[in-house]
Amino acid sequence: MTMKVTFLGTAGAIPTQKRSLPSVVLQCGNELLMFDCGEGAQRQMLTAKVGYHKEMRIFITHMHGDHVLGLPGLLQTMALMDRQRGVDVYGPVGIAHFLECLQETLQFAVTYPMQIHEVSDAGLVCDTENYAVTAAKSNHVLPSFAFCFQEKPRAGKFHPEKAKALGVSVGEAFGRLQRGETIQLPNGTVVQPSDVADAPRKGRKIIYTGDTRPFPEFAAFAAEADLVVHESTFDDALAEKAQVDGHSTPSQAAKETAEAHAKKLVLTHISARYSDSTILVEQAKKFFADVVVAEDFLELELPLSE
Amino acid sequence: MTMKVTFLGTAGAIPTQKRSLPSVVLQCGNELLMFDCGEGAQRQMLTAKVGYHKEMRIFITHMHGDHVLGLPGLLQTMALMDRQRGVDVYGPVGIAHFLECLQETLQFAVTYPMQIHEVSDAGLVCDTENYAVTAAKSNHVLPSFAFCFQEKPRAGKFHPEKAKALGVSVGEAFGRLQRGETIQLPNGTVVQPSDVADAPRKGRKIIYTGDTRPFPEFAAFAAEADLVVHESTFDDALAEKAQVDGHSTPSQAAKETAEAHAKKLVLTHISARYSDSTILVEQAKKFFADVVVAEDFLELELPLSE
Questions:
Q1: Cβ distance A108 to B98 under 8 Å?
Q2: What ipTM goes with this model?
Q3: Residue B106: its chain A contacts at CB < 8 A?
Q4: What is the topology classification, in CATH, of domain A3-154+203-301?
């Protein structure tokens, strides 16, 4: 399954000419997962060539305008384009009322099934054949969640020569073993997947923090993630302001990522004051080496685990 | 007074890579008048270098998302930037409830005085020292208004030689006559402004239609306007669809503008289907010569009348 993360908007609460309001999408096979939907996200999707018609799940971290004001327009545009597939929206308590208000005051209706799932606590948010998304309570200035995308494990590497040696014929039995099923040969021998394949390969894991101060559950929540997308609104010199406003600095984001033994860190939700983000990278690099500051339309492919 | 119209967004209901959602601003001296505020308007303002801190009036033609979903984000951004000056918002009945809902569900507060004026009928909407804005009931699929910006007349050209010939001394009396006051000389002679100056010069006039089918009051409402900004969502071949959806075609917009004896026509609110707008201009030109299709960031200076 191909997996690509695209940053549609990387601004803090105020957009700039270069940075649109917060939104990150994960294209995962034929599905689209969106994390936050700031104003302008629908138009950024056009430039990023993301497409409006895929299977879609939208995850909102918290009910601040800069993270959610792109949602009504996106939902409306998809209706105008006669979308048929359902859309699932996940977000804090209050998101259903927000959308109801807008549907009432703007008289728009969606043409497709829309399910709104209010998230009120940490834990499993959605679970599909290929992945699960879980939430952790983050630490902003109002109820807020960080999300973890976890791909399901893939079968371990299959060794046909081992299967043949055990008497398994090439064909259907091979396929069943590769899918993780136990089989019985005509001679009564039972063959387990583990007899002919390596241990299952871990699925890919991505963390999206939304707006938050550092929070103690982070290291466990993000443990060994392939990618951490962490907000870093202010640089270290403004740590006090970050604390008051419920945000993080590069050092804090990098320390958290290092403690989680994650592989890669991308900083986003960048305050409009940083026309040059070099200082943010420098501050983060003291604690975690593989870090970049996101720019709008940055794309990251996540390779299959070995 | 300098007067410049800037098109921030020229799309129909669905944005494109080239066209943001509907919004037009008029910079008028140190004031900013905005007509509609589609999603993304605040960011388009940055690119257009319009500025967030001017005296500002915002006029919303109707309560469809594509015309108003940029408003909450703009109001919030100006609050985050610590705007102090008041903002006046004018729009159809329902706009106050729309903003209340968003302020409640997104927990944002404005830092500046904000007056919301609900417009329920045709007539005067606002009246200032320099201009007045009036509304006409347009003909869309829900209550909708077109707006007319009318600059106040300026004093006619002053002829100092005529004043001197009548015995007026250079100085304060000159100034009073130039401002349109009648004066009396020490010898008892009464001098009228019309004795020493040409007739007052007409102020500039701009029409912004919002979404509408042609409507019978248009010709009088837009009479002799310097600029008509008219929606033209669909081309003439889709006249039937335009009628059903409450929109206009280039021919309709051009005929209306010609009947109004206006000077210039700009078509906007262009459906996403027209990647090339040549056909729209061609259809309009059959009925009105001075016509262009707006592109995002088109700027038009309106010269002072002679």
A1: no
A2: 0.93
A3: 63-65, 68-69, 98
A4: Metallo-beta-lactamase; Chain A (3.60.15)
